[in-house]
């Protein structure tokens, strides 16, 4: 069973915080979020973006959350040689990056490519994330969204 964890981007502080608890109304809508800031105190904050841990780890063992930006590695095949994994480069020479999101239609996590080259790189399964490397997230590293 995977760990159920969340983090939150505090829009007012422009800071990523650990979400300690999510509090819901009877109708299921989010009422409040308990967050821990650097001082170790718990704060209730409205105006946050909640991101859930996918339960998956990248090639370096780092947890992958919704909103993470990942570098995508693709398999390079050689005749009569072992498989080699390399950073996928576009014709422009840029690395292929993707933003992790939850696809509510298919009930699974995906990485949407940030270049028009491919709308969705659909390999966020247990084995596919070994070929992802978390390099930032859409809130703390918006420049990565523009670099593609």
Question: What this model shows, in words?
Answer:
- The protein is mainly beta and 148 residues long.
- The chain has a single domain, classed as SH3 type barrels (Roll).
- It is 3% helix and 47% strand.
- The protein is built from one helix and eleven strands.
- It has a six-stranded antiparallel beta sheet, with no helix packed on it. Strands 7, 8, 9, 10 and 11 form a five-stranded antiparallel beta sheet that branches.
- A hairpin with a 5-residue loop joins strand 3 (30-36) and strand 4.
- The longest helix has 5 residues, at 142-146.
- It is globular and about 45 Å long.
- The chain starts with 5 loop residues before the first strand and ends with a helix.
- The model is unreliable at 117-123 (pLDDT under 50).
Which stretches are poorly predicted, pLDDT < 50 over at least 5 residues?
117-123
Q: How many beta-strand runs? A: 11
CATH C-level class: Mainly Beta
Q: Which topology does CATH recognise?
A: SH3 type barrels
Q: Give the termini separation.
A: 35 Å
Instruction: Using the CA coordinates, give the radius of gyration.
Output: 17 Å
CATH architecture descriptor? Roll
Order of helices and strands: EEEEEEEEEEEH
Short description:
The protein has 148 residues and is mostly beta strands.
Topology:
Blueprint: E1 6-10, E2 15-24, E3 30-36, E4 42-44, E5 48-57, E6 63-65, E7 68-76, E8 84-87, E9 97-103, E10 108-113, E11 132-137, H1 142-146
């Amino acid at each position: 069973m995977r760990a159920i964890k969340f983090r939150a981007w505090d829009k007012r502080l422009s800071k990523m915080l650990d979400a300690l608890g999510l509090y819901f109304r009877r109708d299921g809508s989010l009422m409040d979020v308990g967050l821990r800031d650097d001082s170790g105190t718990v704060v209730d904050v409205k105006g946050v973006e909640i991101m859930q841990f996918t339960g998956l780890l990248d090639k370096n063992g780092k947890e992958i959350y919704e909103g993470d930006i990942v570098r995508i590695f693709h398999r390079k095949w050689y005749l009569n040689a072992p498989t080699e994994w390399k950073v996928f480069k576009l014709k422009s020479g840029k690395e292929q990056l993707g933003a992790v999101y939850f696809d509510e239609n298919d009930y699974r996590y995906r990485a949407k490519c940030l270049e028009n080259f491919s709308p969705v790189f659909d390999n966020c399964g247990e084995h596919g994330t070994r070929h992802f490397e978390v390099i930032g997230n859409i809130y703390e590293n918006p420049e990565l969204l523009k670099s593609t």
